[in-house]
Specification:
The chain is α/β, with parallel strands linked by helices. The chain has two domains: 95 residues, 3-Layer(aba) Sandwich (Rossmann fold), CATH 3.40.50; 64 residues, no CATH class. Helices cover 51% and strands 13% of the residues. The chain has nine helices and four strands; from the N terminus they run E-H-E-H-E-H-E-H-H-H-H-H-H. Strand 3, helix 3 and strand 4 form a beta-alpha-beta unit. The chain is globular, with a radius of gyration of 16 Å. The two termini are 17 Å apart.
Amino acid sequence: MPYRQLRILVEGNDDERFFEKIRPILEHKYDFVQTWQYQQKTSKQIKSFLQAIREMNSSYFFVADINRTPCVTAKKNSIKRKYGSKIDCDNLIIVAREIESWYLAGLDDKSCKELGLKPFKDTDGITKEDFNKLIPKKFDSRIDFMVEIIKRFTTETAKQKNKSFAYFMSKI
């Protein structure tokens, strides 16, 4: 059986924290899993990393928030224009709306209650600003809140509550 590698290119710390939570799931399918933050990198550095991934014949996903882009296709096209032939559109994962929506998607009703939140039917439209408004006063910081969410996060719940997360899980 060949040695399988997966690189996940993520925007920043919140994304990396999230993917560290689901790393065990990924490690069932890959021998090596690496997250790599691109937000503080230059376009040249990102292109070089993508080229290195190709040369190693490694699998990868480039994860980006849809933010204010009108649709997934427009966001993918924007990224493709920026990185050209170095990136494959099949490897782009667009988070609707932002990574915070994936965090909240993994909470079942019981976990929401424990954290002081109203249950969510779906989280597809959650933005960073929406997320920040939901943080209960009992948490010292946004990061503390995210850590508590991650402790309760389940992928099965998240797949039901967030379409872009379900899509990502189908790709792996």
